[in-house]
Amino acid sequence: MMAKKRMFLSFRKRQVLGGILFSLPFVIGFVLFFLRPLAQAVQFSFSELVLTSTTYELEPRGWFNYLYALQRHPEFSRKLTETLTDLATRLPMIVAFSFFAANIINQDFKGRTLVRVLFFLPVIMGAGVIMKLEIDDYSFIMLEHAQEGARFGGAALRNIFENSSIPEAMMEYVVGAAESLPTVIRASGVQILIFLAGLQSIPRDVYEAASVEGATAWEKFWLITFPMLTPLILTNIVYTVIDSFTVMNNELVLLIRETMLEGAGYGVGMAMSMIYFTLIAIVLAVVFAILSKRIFYHV
Amino acid sequence: MTPATRHKLRAYFTSFLRTVMLIGICYVILLPLIHRLSTALMPIEDMYDQSVRWIARTPTLENFRLVWVHMEYVDAFWNSLKLSTFTSVLQVGACTMVGYGLARFKFPGSKIIFAMAILTLMVPPQLIMVPMYLNFRFFDIFGLLGEHALNLVGTYWTFALMSLTATGFRNGLYIFIMRQFFRGLPRELEEAAYIDGAGLFTTFFRVMLPGSVPGLVVTFLFSFVWQWNDYLYVTNFMAGKNFLPQALEGAATKVQIAIDEASALASTSGFLDDHFYSLINNAGMILVILPLLILYIVLQRYFVESIERTGIIG
Questions:
Q1: Residues of A with Cβ-Cβ distance to B94 under 8 angstroms
Q2: Domain with residues A80-149+187-294, CATH architecture
Q3: Within-domain flag for B44
Q4: Reported pTM
């Protein structure tokens, strides 16, 4: 009887029931383990935390922390603009590079396994405790100094382009891209893996059908591979943005931490982070709005 | 030139170009690791010697031995392995289900739930760590427990609860990845299953999951690696326990103390030598990331195998 009933579950009912069943755990977790702490954090940003010997108290301060951060803090506004500009320039480079790299290592060639293992290294080394120790590590700092030398390559490139008619803004971007290539490569590990997994899940018979129809490799790339990967381009944009919070040279995050611990206070630091993340959220919402219409999904 | 030779030439050219590029990229990626390994193999004298750059004059495993002993590596390894396996299995399970729910069902509120998942990503955990800690220290669901609020800090429940509800570290990303994967699978598969009379969960487990193996493997890898290296959650919720990140962070100081105690007259006594710290830290970092590399080498085969699998199904 049950089985029969289920069989005749209408399309619409199945959609609603399935959706709710599958996403319910997250909704519960969201309220209990995310929304509550976040609400508290927002409350902190409107107050000052006063530690007493046994407990803590919150002194309400209204918008004071926000106004202080934006108007009176000597560095916050400048670093906020810098961090956001930096993200905006690096984002396209990382997404483009990882897309390109994933396509290369998806090809068939000798030593592919080795290369894939190597490409995974930045994911392991650029996270958590490893990164935390790296900041103060003597030998790592020495290595960074040694690589400063590589930046002279950028100066040479600049000289070559100097007398050409290329617009200055474009030249700056190209030179900047060349200079930050090592950083881009090391920040692309996760994105490459996401693209690679995406490439692997494209059914092979689609390509076979295209070959039978006489499509060239170029056509197959633009008409199959690229559209099929567009959902993951969005994924990687989101990831790149959230990853930028934890990059160790994110000066804004360092400034916020410093403000909380020894600067203008915990409340001001909280207000600063709220401003930062609201801006990031707005940027992502815009990216979503622009891209979601251009993405290919099986409907 | 015949078309055959032209074709051959082109193949040679692309493979040459590919090799050059891959060597360049791999050089950039490998440089820090090689540097780390070469540092870890140096005796302290080589660190002060300006003429020693990459290859130790007298390579030694002494740093590894010291860090192995003082990290209590075996103990820390098992603790981290248990915690990472446990959380990543739960997280992958929960996030896959939520991702599927958001990818394939149209229901009122689905867009809001998706926006919620992205929101959990937008807020870095450092920011809400203090309230999160308080939340678990006095755990209580909407005041139901009143005075008897539970203290979950220091137990695996903190990780279990967040993982089961897909709200652990970067879980929004896993939901997102899985959602994108499921949206990329052809709809005909599911419809055929429903027409054959399969229920919601049968369709999910028997039809949709096998088609998304690359997504599952990637999500599992991320989840495992980030839990393994995680410093923030483990130090806050599991303070005082010996997991690899804590062990690694404390190792250099412990080694220093041990050496000072062994030779009370040591001139370096009480002096934090950054050269020496660097040796110990580098050896420790290699010990921490080595298991992750092995895991990846084992799992990356699934990427390749799954090509054929999706080939059959698609």
A1: 25-26
A2: Orthogonal Bundle (1.10)
A3: no
A4: 0.82
